[in-house]
Structure formats: structure tokens, C-alpha cells
Amino acid sequence: MKERNDGERATRGLGARGIALAGVLSAVTMLLGWTQIGFIPVPTPAARATILHIPAILAGILGGPVVGLLVGAIFGIFSFILASIPLFKDPLVAIIPRLFIGVVACYIYRFLSKSSRGWLLGSSLAVAALAGVFAYQVGRSTLWLGIVIGAVALVLPASVIWMALRQQRENVALAVAAAAGTLTNTCLVLGMGVLRGYLPNLETAAAIGVTHGIPEVVVAVIVVLAIVLPWKRAQHGGEGTRLES
Fold first, then answer.
1. Which of 16, 102, 156, 160 is most buried by its number of CB atoms within 10 A?
2. Total number of domains in the chain
3. Helix 15-34 crosses helix 53-63 at what angle (to 10 degrees)?
């Protein structure tokens, strides 16, 4: 009942807790942005992978869609201000897609945290299928790299499926929400880059998405689980997070 009331309050508006959470996670985003820790140089047309989306995911899960949107906006603004390539000097690419990161993560988490084991398994298999598609696309041009990426990428979905089979609903919901928030950032930014003419075609965008998306998803899932699970245990007086369906 307490979780339901918290969720309803988060949906209606910010509130003192939401404002405080938005402030803290926005500060983390700004720190990662100003210090450049949140941007990881990679040899692709997008130039950098990022972990700046993770505070927005945490904001959506812990604070609701409004808090997630606000922190995502901070991420987008910093990406725009600190841009070194034309792709991110366009606010339609740098800012608008980032508004949806926390919102998507929020609703995916809320849905799966109340879902049956069938839904948990279905979402886990969808993540596994997506990882397989990524690996296949890479393997078409570089076989050995596709095999390596496939092996690494499938460890995460396999772990999620294992949690779903054990009915660890909370863990699955957090993992899939983190992956969904990350892919929202990757897909919307690259899609907007194609629409705005900064990337030549969808094939180029897909190649960048494979290169950036898988590492960003893995890092996001690990960080979100590492932060949110202890947070929720503390809120519930040390009780476990395993929820039986």
C-alpha cells in the first residue's frame, strides 16, 4: 500500500521528496558533465558514449516521470552546452530525446514490478532477442567481433531470465527498466540524428547504436541494481526485494 501511495504521489507532481531527488540527481549529472567523466570517447561518428543517462533512469524509477523528465532535461542541456561535434550542437538531437529516458524507465519499472512471471519472462526474452540482433548485425561485417559482443551481451539477458524464473520481480523490473531507458536514449538520439541529416542513413545509426548501446545498457543495469536495491531494502527495514507472484 505504501508503494502504491508513493507512486500515486509521484505521478501527480513533484512534492518535497521529488524536488530533493531531482536536485541531487541533477547535481550528479552536472558533475559527470563538467568533469567529462560521463562522456567516454569512442572511435565512431558520434565520438562519445555516455553514462549521463543513468541519473535520469534512477530519477524515473525512484521519483516518478516528472522527476525523470527534469533530470533528463539537465542531461540534454549539458550534452548541448558541452557538444564538440555538430550532432549534439543541435538542441533537437541533444535535448529532446533525453526528456524521455526517465519517463520510459519509470513506466517500464512500474508495469513489470506488478506483472506476472509470464510478463517477466517475455520482457527478458525480448532483451535477449535484441542482444542477439545487435550481435548478428556486427557479425555480418566483423565475425569475431560479433561473436564477442554476442557472448558478452547475452550474459545480461540470461541473468534477467534467471531472475524471472526465480520470480525476483523487483530485480527484473529494475534491470529491464534500466535497459529500456538506455535504449530510449540511444535510439531517439540516433534516429533524430538521421532525421536532421547529421548521420547519412539508418545503417550508420544502427552501427553506432550497436557500438554504444550494448556497453551503455550493461553499465546502466549494473549501476541501477547496485543503487536501487539497497535503497529499497533500507526503505523497507532491511527486508529482501524478492516478491512472489
1. 102
2. 1
3. 170
Percent of the chain with pLDDT over 70: 72
Locate 128 and state its grid cell. Answer: 535477449
Number of residues in the chain = 245
8 Å CB contact between 98 and 73:
yes
Query: Could you give the angle at which helices 15-34 and 2-12 cross, rounded to 10 degrees?
Result: 70
pLDDT one-digit tens code per residue, 96-146: 999 999 999 999 999 888 877 777 777 767 767 776 776 666 666 666 656
Q: What is the mean pLDDT of the chain?
A: 79
Judged against a pLDDT cut of 60, whether residue 174 lies above it is answered with: yes
The CATH number that applies at residue 130 is 1.10.1760.20
36 CB-contact burial (10 Å; exposed 0-12 / middle 13-18 / buried 19+): exposed
